[in-house]
Amino acid sequence: MKNWFAGILLAAVWALVLWIWLTAEVTGGHGAAHSRFSQMDQGGSGTERHGPIFAAAWLLGSLMIAMFVCLLAWQTKGGRRPWPWFFVGGLLYEAIFSVMCWTYWRSLAEPTGTSFWGALPAPVAWLVYGIWLFPGFFITIYVARFDDWILPEESMCRFEAIVRAKRES
Amino acid sequence: MEEYRSVVVLACVVAYLAMCVAVGLWAMRRTKSSQDFFMAGRHLGVVVASVAVFSSTMSGWGFVGGPGLVYKMGVTSFWMIVATSIGISISFFLLGKRLRMMGELRELISLPDAVAARYGSNTTSLLTALAILLGVLGYLATQILAMATVLQSILTDVPWIGVIPIEACLGISGAVLVFYCVTGGIIASVYTDLAQGIIMVVAALLVLATAIGAVQGGMTGMAQTILADDPEAMSPWGTLGMVGCLSWYFIFVLGACGQPHVITKLMMTRNVRDARHMLPISVIGYGTAALLWIAIGMAMRTVVLQGGYGELANADDAAAAFLQNYAPPLLSGVVFAGLLAAIMSTADSFLNIGAAAVVHDIPRALRGRSLENELAWARAATVLIAAASALFALYSGSLVALLGAFGWGTFAAAIVPTAAIGFNWKRATPMACNLAIGASLLINFGLELFQIELPYGFHGGAFALLVSLTIFYLVSMATPQRPIAADIEAIMDL
Q: Which range marks the domain in which residue A69 is found?
């Protein structure tokens, strides 16, 4: 990862965090005590608490995912050959996150009428079956291309030579 | 069998504790040097190391606090679980190969050792060791207290035993923990982790099935009930909201690369290539164990909302209430053993890295060499740290909760820049590490001590991590690059 690129990513995260923090938060915007059960919280109106910051929060989440995928790709070997895989993986990951946000936003009009997939409301299904499970794509890359992009044979030989030289000295 | 519930639970827990003692005795014969005590002689197989990684990540908090958090905040808590699949992956992509190679090349036995090798700075190594020690004391104290509390509740339920003081329960559970940690060091720790991890996975799958059967309509019924009561609780953001959840995502994804008791295990494998198979096993193991967290939390919130169970006095009672009322006695016993397993698998790792900090890292940073007879000192330090943590847990009042709460965030903010980034980025400088570690300690402690709440429920640890990453980046860019030892630089190129 180029030094300037890391700096831009960090600056962008700060800009979005500050944008959100400087936007006035509604009372109980991050949860309030439940009206009947003291040990439970409730969220209140999604439209009211998320409306003013929805775009910034979506951008923040997207940027975090971009950062995570860059970290995954950062130390891979094999020149530029792994990049298309991480690019496509990153795009799919971003798409899943965006669809989750979009289905949530649409569900706000009629929250209890949302469709169910795999025993969960659609937006939560995207979180559980999408955001949680999608990194399986990158894990598959790690396992399947370990000998090419993570630890090629020549790196292993070089490592063994370094260890030998160190012990002999 | 229902009338013997408490005895069945006790029998399962006693069997589990006996297994820990047996493993300690077995491992004692294999622990002959400090390399064995702290690094398992770098002889761990793929399965043992993988299970040790995920069972150390899943602490007792996951089995008690996790369901409590779902009960309290709905889907919000899912983000802590969701984050681990990508978080553990990033740990392996950035550190799996690198740490293992550095460990073998320099015969390292701790993370501060690796920091010293990478940066050539005793100050950076010392600060890393101090950050670890501070986090260990707090985290370990909460784990030891949790262990004693669980044991007390199990013993109190057995009619012929009655009420046992918390000090006695702490003595019993602490003695077992210290016994296997002292006799077998990290070897005993990782092999008990193996059993503990298997218990956790089995318990989680059985609990999921029981929870689905306990509520009419299964998982759909639970989701519909929670949704009807408060749609936001059953939205992807839960009650905390979008920004709070994203801050959790940030700290729990990146923080996974900064947990010293977990990433140290990446140095213990037999072969560098073992990382290839460890990653999927660790992620699948953690994900499966976490099903318990989701299942119990959702089931208890549902039955309370439906009126099938009275309101809980404390959200953290969710797991115990579920097991007492909905799980068959044998499953209850397995899960209680799993709960102790989750606590002890984290506590034993903390004891080991704490002992390494005291007898190895700090003396090396201050005197330039280790103590004579390091193995004996390591065993003594393990006992002393456990005793100090136990006293701290019993008599320091709210300070335990303060340090315990600040554990994950502190480790993340202090160690992610120094290790996960710095071990892969030659531009990183010792000065940048020192300032980043200092800032992370200051911010995490300050936010907890003064109870400062950030806007939109933004996680304090996430803020500390963002600040420490920024300081680390800016100072590294602003200060001259320091030469790196030739062998370490060669490893960083691989």
A: 3-23+47-168
